[in-house]
Amino acid sequence: MTQPAPSAQLRAALDLAERGIPVLPLRADKGPMGNCSACRNTACGGRPNMQTSGPCTCPRPCHAWAAATTSLAVLTSAAWAGAWRQAAAVAYHPGGAGLTVVDLDHADAVAWARENLPATRTVPTTRGEHWIYQGTMRSVNGVRDGIDIKSTASYARWRGTGSGMMQPLPDTVRALADKAPAGPRPAAGTATMPRPTGGGECRHRSPAYLERGIAMAEQRIKGAPDTIHKTVYRLFLAVLSTHGQCGCMTEAHIDRLFTAAQEKGESLRHCEIAWANAVTTLGM
Fold first, then answer.
1. CB count, 10 Å around CB of 89?
2. Start-to-end C-alpha separation, the chain
3. Three state DSSP letters for 12-52
4. d(CA 88, CA 83)
5. What sections of the chain are H helices per DSSP?
6. Are 48 and 36 in contact (CB under 8 A)?
7. What's the Cα-to-Cα distance from 188 to each of 94, 181, 246, 271, rounded to whole Å?
8. Residues 244-276: tens digit of each pLDDT
9. Whether the predicted model's global pTM rises above the 0.85 cut
10. How confident is the model at residue 116 (pLDDT cuts 50, 70, 90)?
11. Residues 57, 71 contacting (CB under 8 angstroms)
12. How many other C-beta atoms can be found within 10 angstroms of the C-beta atom of residue 190?
C-alpha cells in the first residue's frame, strides 16, 4: 500500500530535526496539540502544557514544548501522524537548540529593540520580528510591552532562517528577565490579585461555593460554541469578580480554568490575555 506523501509541515519539521532543532506541530491558532488523555487535567501530576522538565515521554505530541524532538522515528511515527495531518505550522524549542528568541510583537517593540539590543539574526513575523541569539535562559512573557523571551521551557513558531549574523546572548536580554516575574507564564491570578485577608478562605462564601463556581466555569468553557475567545474572557471575568478580591482562589483553581480553555482549543497566550484583561477590567 502506498504511503501518503508527508505534509509540508512534516517535511519542514524533518529538515529542522536533521539540523538538531527540536520541533513539534502547531494548530491553526498557533497553539500546541492538546495533552493526551492520560495527562489531561493534571492527571499525570504535571502542569498542563507547561511541564517544567522535558522531554515528554508520551507517545503522541503532548505537553507543548516538552514534546519537541529531533528524533525522525518519533516525528514520522503512527502516533504523531494525526497531529501532522491537523498541523498548520511547525514550532521549535529554542532552549533545546541552544537558542533564545526575543519575540517582538509590534512595531514599537521592534523600534525599542533596535535602540537597546545588539543586532543579531532577525526573522520577520506577522506583526513584528523574532531576534535570535546563541545561548539559553529562562523564558518570560511580557518583559516589556509586546516583548516575550522564549528559550527554555517554551516554544516559538518556525518562520524561516531570517537574515543577519547570530550573536551571543547579551546581558541586556538576560536583564529583561531579571526584572520580570519568575516562571514561563505570568501568574496573573496570584500576582495581580490582593493578598488573602482571611487565611485564604472566602469571606462571603463557603469553599464549596468556589468549587461549584470553578466546576461550572469549566463546563461552560468545554461547551462553548465557536466564539471561544469571548466565552473564556467572560467566564474568567465572572470567576474573578466573585472570588478575586477575597483571595480564595489558588494556582490550582486557575490552572483548571486554563486547562479547560486549552482543551477547547484556546491557546495559552490567549488565556493569558483574557485573564489579564479580566483583572484590568475589575481594577485588581
1. 16
2. 61
3. HHHHHHHCCCCEEEECCCCCECCCCCCCHHHCCCCCCCCCC
4. 10
5. 8-18, 72-75, 78-86, 107-116, 171-178, 188-192, 207-222, 228-243, 251-263, 268-281
6. no
7. 24, 10, 15, 10
8. 666 677 777 787 888 888 777 777 777 877 777
9. no
10. very high
11. no
12. 14
